[in-house]
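For practice. Supply one:
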Amino acid sequence: MKKYDVVVIGTGVAGSTVAHKCNSAGKNVAVIDHRPFGGTCPLRGCDPKKVLVGGAELVDWNNRMKEIAGLDRDTTINWTSLISFKRTFIQTFPDMIEKNFTSHGIDAYHGLACFSDEKTIEVGDDQIEGDYIVIATGSKPRELNIPGEEHIIKSDEFMELENLPDNIVFLGGGYISFEFANIAARSGSKPLILQRGEQPLKTFDSDMVDVAVEASKDAGIDVLTGHKVTKIEKKGDQYEVTTENEKQNTFTTDLVVHGGGRSANIDELGLDKGNVEVHKKGIAVNEYMQSLSNPRVYAAGDCTEEGPQLTPVAGIQADAAAENIIKGNNKQVDYTGVPAVVFTLPPLASVGITKDDVKDTHEVIYNDRSSWYSSKRLNLNHAASKIIIDKQTDKILGAHILGPEAEEVINIFAMAMRYGLNASDVKNALFTYPSVCSDIEHMM
């Protein structure tokens, strides 16, 4: 049996952060992963998805500006070429990550990790003991528990398709469905999103979501709410998706894609043997990212019950976990000003509270920005903003932006909230002109 100061399970953003920070502090570290090193975000999630979004943006730009700019034809994506381009970002990444570990003296293990007791991990034939064990295994598509679930493909499989079919049904109204549906629509497919509840994109402000849904519908995406999927059947080369709302409905499609949310990827870790307590959303941790039941164990990222499932959150949780292992529990995670974005076209970005949290002491400033210069010059029909400010303290409590470069503009508001700037400070800041950030003064 080999012994380490720190054993890290998972090599994504959270796992890599903990491993390198502990290694830099002089700890003897091992990392374990049963999939290619690098984690979901760079290999199967955010990064490759954004490559596909880039292709969709190009098509969207061209077709919006065709008549205005005198272009002679519509543009569509060559899906096979775009997927080939996406793979160039992935092919060498796992080897690069592993070499980075080993060059710093971090031992790398390939295989499924499973606790055999509170301080020991089995990886194949290897037994590894850690003074501390850090779980950073991320998330996976949640089980939908419907008949015919075996016919559904996951998001990583969608991004490996050699060709897109004519018709695609996306199950669930979350960010995965909306992002992939927007990509598919610009690739010549006809997407349908089936949402069980009445509001899709539930973590975003509902007023802003309404505008994003209208933009998606204008792009040729059907969005149906209040449709509970009850079964999926294969009928020759196609599939029948049955839903219930006021009546039973059947939708025939070429492909069914999972967009129904994600859950902690912890089922195969043998956490009961490791005395690691699990709650409904994931591993139960205290304010120091330490297991409530086994003080040797820390956890960070999407596998925990804490914080939203976002890459920056995994990073700050991992940073805290590593520091607490090195110095003793002293650092808590600050979730102030954590921004999020769904890469629809145009993108919808958000930070802070939504309309559901607004009180009488708050000022809500909503703007339809479709007629503003930053939208009209791009021939965009859908753009809006909502800023929520505390009337008494002049602090920004929430910001929600739909429109061009929203994923960048939201960072201004997130930074202001995180570092306690007043709304007047942001309103009076100077930004380049003409830019979308120069609109901030008029959003508030």
About this structure: Residues 46-69 form the longest helix (24 residues). The mean pLDDT is 96.
